[in-house]
Amino acid sequence: MFFQSLRKLGAWGVASCAVAHLAWADPAARTPLTCEAAGAPQAAALADALFGQADYQHAGVCYQAAGDMAHANLAFLKAAGPQGEDTARALKAQRDAAKSLLAGVQRAFRPNH
């Protein structure tokens, strides 16, 4: 009975640590991008150049400043793809680390270790 309670406490501790780690790893604290162009034609030209350089997030902001929402949406979609894949990989790595830590805690509290 005591060991079951201790295991549950250990599992909750590991889960709490994993959640805290995710909270600290929040990439949303980036500074917002702005388009440095003076007017709509310059913003469109800058957006085209940025899109060609694969700086899709920045290009989307400039397309918005130029009033070209169709191209802005396309640029933002292209920007979200790699970031989404990176986030998925990071979450998988954190999940695997939490599983490994939990397995270690469970092994430590087994009576026959």
Give your account of this protein's structure.
α1 packs antiparallel against α4, α2 runs antiparallel to α3 (56-66) and α3 packs antiparallel against α4 (69-108). The chain contains four helices and no strands. The chain starts with a helix and ends in a 5-residue tail after the last helix. With 113 residues, it is mostly helical. It is rod-shaped and about 75 Å long.
Q: What is shown here, in short?
A:
The chain has 4 helices and no strands.
Mean pLDDT over the residues: 78
Estimated radius of gyration: 23 Å
Structure summary, number of beta strands = 0
SSE-based structural type: mainly alpha
Strand residue content: under 5%
The helix content, as a percent range, equals: over 70%
Poorly predicted residue ranges: 22-26
End-to-end Cα distance: 18 Å
Largest sheet: none
**Outline type:** rod-shaped
Which H/E pattern describes the elements? HHHH
The tally of helices reads: 4
Fold blueprint:
Layout: H1 2-24, H2 40-52, H3 56-66, H4 69-108
What tags apply to this protein structure?
0% strand; mainly alpha; single chain; 113 residues
